[in-house]
């Protein structure tokens, strides 16, 4: 397995890597009570995450299925575990939270 190649400054000196990280961090506390279908959250990268639901009732954050939510991180807020990157919003799940 080949290791990742980063500049001497580290992975966060790469603007793409930093943007990916910041696009997965939302402003404010997001717990189960706020993960309602149709809710939108602004990330630190100034992108928007929309809560959607598929026909099976699973919640999604844009293109990532919510695996676990409401994990309290001391002094950091709540964490939501997803199965992949949250961007972009896939065409199979509409903005109003329903599947096509």
TrEMBL record:
- Output the superkingdom of the source species: Eukaryota
What InterPro entries does the record point to?
A: FAS1_dom_sf
Protein name per UniProt = FAS1 domain-containing protein
């Amino acid at each position: 397995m080949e290791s990742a190649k980063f500049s001497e400054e580290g992975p966060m000196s790469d603007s793409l890597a930093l943007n990916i990280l910041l696009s997965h961090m939302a402003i404010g506390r997001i717990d189960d009570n706020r993960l309602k279908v149709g809710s939108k959250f602004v990330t630190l990268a100034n992108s928007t995450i929309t809560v959607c639901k598929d026909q099976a009732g699973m919640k999604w954050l844009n293109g990532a299925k919510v695996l676990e939510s409401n994990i309290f991180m001391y002094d950091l807020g709540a964490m939501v575990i997803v199965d992949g990157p949250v961007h972009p919003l896939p065409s199979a799940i509409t903005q109003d939270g329903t599947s096509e």
